[in-house]
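Lecture notes, continued. The same structure-token format from the folding unit now serves as the input rather than the output. Read the line below as a description of shape only.
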């Protein structure tokens, strides 16, 4: 898995930038829901929850970019991304199947690939190692 060790920085940057696009939900909650799930939610509680959801996911993306650029926080960034992404995938596959034909289906595929890559990196790189890639 030498190629993964050499490429993880760029994988994390691309994944982080893609993930940070969810800041859109913090600005345009209805548009983000339509793009990802083909539906919207109405009401002030929905606005608060969806905007917060978008901000939190966006910050995971920022943290991935930080981890790519700062090896000292790389493992923590990857663990956080794996955890939050695995919950998202699990929820969609268990109770959100109707939304898999929308943007959420593409997100599940891309996110699953990233979880596998991130986990493989963590499992094949010693915990004390400082990546220089």
């Amino acid at each position: 898995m030498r190629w993964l060790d050499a490429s993880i920085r760029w994988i994390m940057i691309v994944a982080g930038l893609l993930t940070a696009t969810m800041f859109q939900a913090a600005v345009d909650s209805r548009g983000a829901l339509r793009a990802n799930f083909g539906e919207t939610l109405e009401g002030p509680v929905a606005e608060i929850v969806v905007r917060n959801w978008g901000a939190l996911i966006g910050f995971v993306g920022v943290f991935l970019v930080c981890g790519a650029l700062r090896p000292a926080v790389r493992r923590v960034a990857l663990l956080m991304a794996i955890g939050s992404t695995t919950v998202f995938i699990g929820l969609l596959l268990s109770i959100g199947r109707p939304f898999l034909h929308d943007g959420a289906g593409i997100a599940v595929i891309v996110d699953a690939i990233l979880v596998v890559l991130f986990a493989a990196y963590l499992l094949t790189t010693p915990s004390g190692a400082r990546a220089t890639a």
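Point for the exam: The CA atoms of residues 13 and 65 lie 5 Å apart.
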